[in-house]
Amino acid sequence: MNPVLDTPITYLKGVGPKKAEVLEKEAGIRIFEDLLYYFPFRYVDKSRIFRVKEVNNDSTYFQLKGKITSLNAVGDKRTRHITAKFADQTGSIDIVWFRGLKWVKENIKPTTEYIIFGKPSVFNNSFNFVHPEIEVFSEEENPASGHSLEGIYSSTEKLKNFGLGNRGIAKIMRQLMLLLGDSISENLPDYIISRFGLMSEKSALQNIHFPKKTSLIAKAQTRLKFDELFYLQMQIILNKKITERKSAGFVFGTVGEYLNDFYSNHLPFELTNAQKRVIKEIRSDLKSGRQMNRLLQGDVGSGKTMVALMSILIAIDNGFQTCIMAPTEILANQHYNSITKLLRGLRLDVALLTGSTKKKEREIIHSGIESGELRILIGTHALVEDTVKFKNLGLAIIDEQHRFGVAQRAKLWKKNLKPPHVLVMTATPIPRTLAMTVYGNLDVSIIDELPPGRKAVKTIHFFESKRLRVLGFIKEQIKLGRQVYIVYPLISESEKLDLKNLMDGFANIQHDFPPPEYLVSVLHGKMKADEKDYEMRRFVEGKTNILVSTTVIEVGVDIPNASVMIIENAERFGLSQLHQLRGRVGRGADQSYCILMSGPKLSNEGRKRLEVMVSTSDGFVIAEEDLKLRGPGDLQGTRQSGLLDFKIASITKDSELMFKTRKLAEAILEKDPRLNDGHNIIIRRHLQKKFSKTANWGKIS
Ligand code: ADP
Ligand code: MG
What is the spatial distance between Cα 6 and Cα 26, in angstroms, rounded to a whole number? Predict the structure, then answer.
């Protein structure tokens, strides 16, 4: 590539060690290359000079020509600032400076004609400009005659203090472009450039910083997004191949007795086609000789447990131990119960290990696991403690993967000399674009079909004013024999306040639903495990009509008779959480309902979320909407990975381009895995450079 790009930024004129330091700290700019790829986030047209009376509030930038008619220092030592009147023939407007006062006093002259440029703000009912760009007007450099389109670079307070506001950055950028001149090299082969009708790299970089025409900006952006996404996909695919090559896995070659017996004699229902397909995918991984690393996505209620169980039986038939790790005790319990029930006819022991397992029981489990006698262990993160020593763990299943940290998962991974096969199950659908990047080194299986006979949950949004109607509806449903969840959100960071919110709600509910006619359970995170268990069991057994709780019931809890889910302050929940909660109902044969209660005032985003919930029950659609509303930054695990620190592409807006580049990358590596072909050498060189810079973000699970 071009070694000039590795030059430290201090080689630019006017960038001394101090400026270099803030540039690196505030904007990650250390060498020429970093600066070159620091793109404007918007563009303004400076070809036009406005008149003062035209200044308005539509949040755009204005360029004005005029004179300073007065200049006043205001305020005392700490609040000192300068205000000036700037006037043209049509009127005058205030300019305010809080910094650089000395410079202003020494340089701004009343007779000189100036060009100012900035975004007006409103103060005391009139417009003013705070720290506008200001320069002496000169006929030759009349902005209307030169480059009219100007990129706006993002800057920070600190950068501005060092003269590196938008203007300052543009200035060093111009210097850099002059310096680089023709030496900007191409990083894509010709055949790709012509096939996709792309601009050259050099032209794209020139136009992204100093566009000659508006139409060229979009072309430049497309080209640079293409680069970014294409090389990201290349890296991901190659990384996956490297990991695969390295991780030999146990070969589960036989279909044995347990699986056959279970399949022929104990299957409680016919598998859905999606379940069959996924089990096939898992089986082919398990016998492939390389370690399985698979993400199983399936909406709540899609039947992931059955898939897990059948995978477990394959492992046991091949002489190995297995485990399922769940994020909460309630869930671990539930897995334990359903797996035990499914295995009733099979003479296979299942053990449950959680934080509340008694010492004696725990010791028995430890020794069973160490001797290899115990072959199915279900539990919470208690499973990864050092005292748990598997004899030969062959398959580790992790439920609701986003609840576990990467380190925790890795710990499980290291329990053997050879890593076990890993199946990660999640009910939170991951948008395709994310699956392709953040989870790009996992194989993905999707259960996209619910077991037959499920009725879609009716979802309704009510404002607080309709509460009486909702209470009446709950009573009706209870009369029909159904059970009801009422969920309260996290209101604040303070557990105390959240608990108070829940307990206030609980008191209201008890008032509206008095015993003995109605019985109410309550469940929250602060309760002791056995209290939780007790309350939960009463609800599971149908002894109480209503379960009031915080989001502890969010994941996985399965009670078919509960058919109404009331979510209080629904506007406070995120989309995926709402979807998870709704998944608690609609598990039995009855029509189920999800009622979203909200206060009267909704933010735009809050309103949008509730609309999405009412309009669809498709987890993938909801996940896409969630990504659009929140952006990827908030999604679990994405921030640390750094994979989504795009310079120009957007995971939400550029999904089409991402699919395109993915396909291209796959096709290229399929044909030329080592990138030895003459026309691919340029790709190889570029990748080598990239790989040398990024740490290997190898194994995610
Ligand atoms: P999840 O994917 O949310 O973990 P579960 O495995 O808990 O879903 O399954 C939800 C419910 O559907 C369970 O009661 C399970 O017994 C039932 N179920 C799973 N697969 C089928 C199927 N193929 N046909 C009928 N019911 C099924
Ligand atoms: Mg489940």
Answer: 19
Q: What is the pLDDT of residues 552-590, one digit of tens each?
A: 665 556 788 999 999 999 998 889 889 888 988 988 778
The two tokens of residue 269 are 């229902």
CB 320 within 8 A of CB 394: yes
pLDDT(698) > 50 = no
Tell me the C-alpha distance between 42 and 48, whole Å: 17
| 535 CA → ligand 1 middle, Å | 24
Structural domain ending residue among the three candidates 146, 174, 196: 146
Strands 393-399, 421-426: parallel, antiparallel or unpaired by DSSP?
parallel
Q: How far is the CA of 556 from the centre of ligand 2 (A)?
A: 5
| 486 CB near ligand 1 (under 6 Å) | no
Same domain for 585 and 466? yes
- Give the residue ranges of DSSP H helices in 196-272: 201-209, 214-246, 257-261
Could you tell me the two tokens for 342?
């499914």
Cα–Cα distance for residue pair 345/334, rounded to 1 Å: 19
Closest by CA position to 509, among listed 532, 490, 479, 487 = 487
385, 499: one domain? no
pLDDT digits (tens, 9 = 90+) for 334-354: 899 999 999 998 989 999 999
Q: How far apart (Å, rounded) are the C-alpha atoms in residues 354 and 388?
A: 12
Site of tokens 């026309």: 679
Nearest alpha carbon, ligand 1 atom 25: 451
- Domain of 173? 1-46+149-185
Protein residues near ligand 2, an ion, with CB under 5 A: 556
Atom 4 (ligand 1) nearest CA: 304
Number of domains in the chain: 4
Mutation test residue for ligand 1: of 262, 269, 344, the one with most atoms within 8 Å of CB: 269
Average pLDDT, integer, range 133-159: 75
In a domain? residue 470 = yes
- For 41, other C-beta atoms within 10 Å of its C-beta total 10
Check if 269 has its Cβ closer than 6 Å to any atom of ligand 1.
yes
Q: Is the CB of 298 under 6 A from ligand 1?
A: yes
Residue 472 lies in a domain: yes
Question: Do strands 393-399 and 376-379 pair parallel, antiparallel, or not at all (unpaired)?
Answer: unpaired
Q: Which residues of 444-453 are buried (b: 16+ CB within 10 A; e: fewer)?
A: bbbbbebbee
Cβ count within 10 A of residue 674 = 8
633 in a structural domain: no
Q: Which phi-psi region, left, alpha or beta, contains residue 255 (left: φ > 0; alpha: ψ -120 to 50)?
A: beta
627 located within any domain: no
**Final residue belonging to a domain, choices 398, 421, 447:** 447
Is residue 559 within 8 A of residue 587, CB to CB? The reply is yes
Residues forming beta bridges with residue 290, ordered by sequence position: 248
Note whether 307 and 375 are same-domain residues.
yes
| Atom of ligand 1 at shortest range from CA of 587 | 11
pTM of the model: 0.67
Residue of 564, 550, 556, 575 whose CA lies nearest to 627: 575
| Token pair belonging to 462 | 């009510």
Do residue 379 and residue 282 come from a single domain?
yes
The domain that holds 113 is classified in CATH as 2.40.50.140
**SS3 call for 379:** strand
Residues 345 and 472 grouped into a single domain: no
Same domain, yes or no, for 2 and 71? no
Q: How many CB atoms lie within 10 A of CB 349?
A: 13
